[in-house]
Design brief:
Number of helices: 3
Helix content: 10-25%
Largest sheet: 10 strands, antiparallel
Number of strands: 13
Length: 198
C-alpha cells in the first residue's frame, strides 16, 4: 500500500520558468521588473524572492492590471515580450479575474486563456480507477475577438477560422506561412492583420 502523498504529473504554471516581468498596476506606481510565474491552477502570481527568504512569494495581485513576461532569446528564436491582461470580457464571471495572454492585437485579437484542473489520484476503494498519481490537465482555450462579433472560442485551424472570420482565414491561407505552432499562428496574424494606429 503506497504511503505519503501521491506524485503530481503536470505543471500548474503558464510557463514553468522564472521569467522577468514588468507589472502594470491600477494605481500607476512604477515597479522594477521582477522574476515571476503565473500559477494558473491556483489563480496567483508568484515572485522569486531574494535570500534569505523562501524561494517564492505570492504577489498580492489585486492592483495588477497586466504584466509582460520577457522570454529570453534562444539559439533559434529572438527574445520576445508576452503580454498578459485581465480577462475582463470573459464569458463566465468567475474567469474575469484571470489573465489572458494577448497573442495578437490588430483588428482582431487572438487571446489565450490558460486553464488548469487537478484530477486527483484514485486508487483506493472498490470503484477506483487505479490512477496512483494526481494529474494537472491543461484546459486552455483560444479566443478570437473583434469589435463587431465580440469574443468567440476558437481552435487554431483553417476550418475554424473560415467559420469565425472568413477574410482572416483567406489571408492566413494565402500567406504561405507554416502554421503548426502557436508562435507561427501569432506571427501570421501579425503579418496579415497589423496593429491599427490610434
Amino acid at each position: 500500500m503506497p504511503t505519503g502523498s501521491p506524485e503530481t504529473i503536470g505543471s500548474p504554471y503558464a510557463d514553468q520558468r522564472w521569467l522577468l516581468a514588468s507589472l502594470a498596476l491600477n494605481n500607476a506606481l512604477p515597479l522594477a521588473p521582477v522574476p515571476l510565474k503565473y500559477d494558473v491552477l491556483n489563480h496567483r502570481l508568484l515572485m522569486r524572492a531574494l535570500p534569505p527568504l523562501p524561494d517564492s512569494l505570492v504577489v498580492d495581485d489585486h492592483l495588477v492590471v497586466s504584466f509582460v513576461l520577457t522570454d529570453p532569446a534562444t539559439g533559434a528564436e529572438p527574445a520576445r515580450r508576452r503580454t498578459f491582461r485581465r480577462f475582463a470580457e470573459a464569458p463566465l464571471l468567475t474567469q474575469r479575474a484571470d489573465y489572458v495572454e494577448v497573442l495578437h492585437l490588430g483588428r482582431y485579437a487572438l487571446l489565450k486563456h490558460y486553464a488548469k484542473t487537478l484530477v486527483p489520484a484514485n486508487y483506493q476503494g472498490a470503484y477506483s480507477s487505479g490512477r496512483r498519481f494526481n494529474e494537472i490537465e491543461n484546459k486552455s482555450v483560444y479566443y478570437l475577438s473583434t469589435v463587431a462579433a465580440g469574443l468567440m472560442p476558437i481552435k487554431l485551424t483553417f476550418k475554424a477560422l473560415r467559420v469565425a472570420a472568413p477574410d482572416l482565414a483567406t489571408g492566413l491561407k494565402n500567406s504561405g506561412r507554416p502554421l503548426q505552432t502557436e508562435a507561427e499562428w501569432a506571427a501570421a496574424f501579425d503579418a496579415i492583420d497589423p496593429v491599427v494606429p490610434k
